[in-house]
Specification:
Number of helices: 4
Helix content: over 70%
Distance between the termini: 136 Å
Shape: rod-shaped
Order of helices and strands: HHHH
Structural class: mainly alpha
Radius of gyration: 68 Å
Number of strands: 0
Strand content: under 5%
Length: 205
């Protein structure tokens, strides 16, 4: 049975002979009632404060749980992003390595082809030079043979010019006699032609 402060304040007792002083008892009961009422009010205030603290603690717990869940989710997402980034980085590096190997391989193949083409051109040049020398030598040989058989008109013209110069010198009586027509032969003209052809070949090569 609960006792309220008002119950204490209005409590009455039966009277007996030689009993207690009723006024003193009532004063004491009122003091007790007031004190008890103060205790009850303080208890109620503490209960209200406790309830508010419990609500605050509950709110903090909810926030803590939400924060923990958020941190856990963020950690998982970070780990997933890190794993995805690592995987993508490996793919990019592998692709770059493959492209680099292809570029290096293509460059080596191109360099080999260039060297091969240079060697082929050198070989073709040597063949061309040898063929050209053989053709020129053949033509010089033919020219020598033809000169022995039949003098060329150029040589006859040169002979005529020499004879005319000698005649003029003899008539004028100046200087020594130059070479006669008999000294100018076809072989000399062929030698001049051969030297000019050799000079032209050297310039062209």
């Amino acid at each position: 049975m609960k006792i309220a402060p008002i119950d204490i304040a209005h409590k009455t007792f039966a009277r007996k002979m030689m009993g207690l002083d009723g006024d003193e008892v009532m004063d004491f009961l009122r003091s007790v009632a007031d004190e008890y009422e103060s205790v009850v009010r303080e208890r109620n205030s503490l209960r209200e404060t406790l309830r508010e603290k419990e609500l605050t603690i509950s709110d903090f717990r909810e926030r803590d749980d939400l924060l923990k869940n958020t941190i856990t989710t963020a950690t998982k997402m970070s780990e997933k992003l890190q794993a995805d980034a690592d995987r993508e980085a490996r793919l990019i590096i592998n692709d770059a390595n493959q492209k680099a190997e292809m570029i290096v391989r293509d460059a080596r193949d191109s360099l080999k082809r260039i060297y091969q083409e240079i060697n082929d051109l050198k070989r073709l040049r040597m063949q061309f030079e040898n063929n050209l020398k053989a053709i020129i030598q053949s033509h010089l040989t033919m020219l020598d043979q033809a000169q022995k058989i039949m003098p060329s008109p150029v040589i006859e013209s040169q002979l005529g010019e020499v004879e005319m110069k000698e005649t003029r010198k003899a008539e004028a009586g100046q200087g020594q006699a130059g070479p006669t027509s008999s000294e100018v032969t076809g072989s000399d003209s062929a030698q001049v032609i051969r030297s000019r052809i050799s000079e032209a070949i050297s310039k062209s090569l």
